[in-house]
Specification:
Layout (H helix, E strand, L loop, with lengths): L12 H10 L3 E4 L2 E4 L9 E3 L2 E3 L3 H9 L3 H14 L6 H13 L4 H9 L2 H4 L11 H12 E4 L1 H11 L21 H16 L4 E3 L1 H5 L5 H12 L6 H13 L4 H14 L7
Antiparallel strand pairs: 1-2, 3-4, 5-6
């Protein structure tokens, strides 16, 4: 109720106790659900002001029926995909769609990702990328082959050990992803990905983009990693970096990739 459905303040300790009785007899045996009716409490329970001989399934339905539930889920979706501090109006709008779609999340996400809210310039680059978003997103954009054991170790060092969250709540995320240690590791990842084959090899199409003027190379890199949305000042800095980078065309491309992968703008989505 607190972490996944309603949030703090939308249930009582008595609701928790009564719900626990409703789940009595539920087990997992050899990886499969198993219900032992002999261990189930068949007496009446009162949850959210309703009384009945509830089982676990009924408790789930009662949680979904609470007005706080769609708003709680809407807040989670908005914080993950749109902005770190969604307004009550945003939350109400998405909560209404969750309710209308009877908690089927796929159509809600489709509507959210096609909405003016999602594409509002005010929300561009307002969410800090998680280590998984940063690393896997970079690899999908640039890499031909990936050394996954090294990537798994990197993600763990960055604070997101995949399939091993610190608690049942998962990772807190947000600004906690960035600190003096993690920003250095993120920069080291950018260097390793762009400049060598320690963790991945660059795609041929990326390597081929090394040819051309500094203006052309910078534009290709920005389109690939920043979505063609960098401000003129940043574009000018990237062009200048490529112009003054040492080495041949490929080395200058790698240096430019390293720069863009390390930018604050690339740490955000």
């Amino acid at each position: 109720m607190e972490l996944f459905a309603l949030g703090v303040g939308n249930y009582t300790e008595k609701d928790i106790q009564e719900a626990a009785r409703s789940f009595s007899g539920w087990h997992v045996r050899e990886g499969a659900f198993w219900f032992n009716r002999l261990q189930h409490d068949d007496s009446a329970k009162t949850v959210f002001g309703k009384t009945g001989n509830f089982d676990g399934t009924a408790i789930v339905d009662l949680c979904l029926a609470q007005p706080a539930c769609p708003r709680f889920l809407a807040m989670k979706l908005l914080k993950t995909f749109v902005c770190p501090e969604p307004t009550p109006a945003m939350i109400d709008a998405v909560a209404d769609r969750i309710h209308q779609h009877e908690f089927h999340i796929s159509p809600v996400l489709k509507e959210l990702f096609c909405s003016r809210l999602f594409f509002d310039p005010a929300h561009q680059r307002s969410v800090i990328k998680s280590p998984l978003d940063l690393v896997v997103g970079s690899l999908r954009s640039l890499a031909a082959t990936v050394k996954w054991p090294a990537i798994a170790r990197l993600l763990a060092n960055l604070g997101q050990d995949v399939f091993e969250p610190p608690s049942v709540k998962g990772w807190e995320g947000g600004r906690l992803w960035i600190n003096s240690s993690s920003i250095l590791l993120r920069t080291n990842f950018a260097t390793e990905l762009a400049s060598g084959d320690q963790i991945a090899t660059l795609r041929k199409s990326v390597i081929d983009s090394a040819d051309g003027t500094s203006e052309a190379v910078a534009a290709r890199v920005e389109r690939l990693l920043l979505g063609d949305s960098s401000p003129p000042e940043l574009h000018a800095d990237i062009v200048a970096h490529h112009q003054h980078a040492d080495g041949n065309a490929l080395q200058r491309l790698r240096s430019t990739l390293q720069l863009v992968l390390s930018l604050p703008e690339f740490q955000l989505q």
